[in-house]
Amino acid sequence: MIHIEQVNRSFGSTQVLRDVDFTISPGLMTGFVGGNGAGKTTTMRILLGVLEPSSGRVTVDGEPMSAHYRAGIGYMPEERGLYPKMPVLEQIVYLARLHGVSKQRATERATELLERLGLGERMKDDLQSLSLGNQQRAQIAAALTHEPHALVLDEPFSGLDPMAVENTLEVLRDVADTGAPVLFSSHQLDVVERLCDELVIIADGEIRAAGSREEIRAANTSPAWNLETDADTGWVRSIPGIDVIEFDGGFVRFHAPDADAADTVLQEAMSRGRVRSFAPYRPPLTEIFQEVIR
Could you tell me which residue ranges the ABC transporter domain spans (predicted)? Predict the structure, then answer.
């Protein structure tokens, strides 16, 4: 388990991280979410040893992260860093060999990854001849070829079309299934919601929420229900303690203080007509994110 412990970081008189503290668990995909300038990239660079924290530390299973462990992390920066005039396969093999992988194994692994990521027919082309989305896929392959024991990916889905996103999700899930802790940042909240096991939300250099999707959803939203009937549901507004969020004829979404209050609404609806559906409302990550960072 990787633990970022009470990390602070300042640049001159500007403090950009304040007591940042969260864990990245083995075998889990942890989504790191925040707006531009929130502190995601700075946190990742401290984790990787590129920057030193002003205070705090990064540990692995309770011990300070060693240089040896850091060398085995697969890292993909947000900025593209591959060689534009070098063939894709050749440079990915080269980068894997810098990690001590044999040429044969590096070639096998790079070829497998490029094929899975949809670049099988382009692997001998120079990087600069590829579209930006395909260059992104090549960067993902470069982060994975040396079979890392942990992954840190900064905006890995940027510029990818839906099919490429699905291919990438499958590959990353396979890495997590080996027991590797995986941390990735993304602005694509719908992708984060589908992929991640745990979430860390950062704003203004501070962690605003961390945990599983359900834990964050429960901690940052009030219980809400969706009700759809054959009759008009305007009467729900008159029930004490019930707060209507959205209303459209036979459909209403409302907050209730507890399950008993929600059941009171359901019983009243059944007495007035046929109930088509009644279920708890699960807010999407976009809605939770907006609530948390306020």
Answer: 2-229
Q: Please write the tens of the pLDDT for every residue from 73-97.
A: 999 988 878 999 999 999 999 999 9
Query: 126 φ, ψ to 5°?
Result: -65, 145
The average pLDDT across 61-72 equals 94
| Of 81, 134, 141, nearest in space to 111 by CA | 141
Confidence (pTM): 0.83
Query: CA of 22: how far to CAs of 98, 157, 201, 204, in Å?
Result: 30, 23, 10, 16
Compute CA distances 117 → 174, 179, 203, 262, whole Å: 13, 21, 32, 47
Which has the higher per-residue pLDDT, 285 or 278? 278
* Token couple for 78: 């947000």
Q: 16-40, pLDDT tens digit by residue? A: 999 999 999 999 999 999 988 899 9
- Distance, C-alpha 247 to centroid of its chain: 32
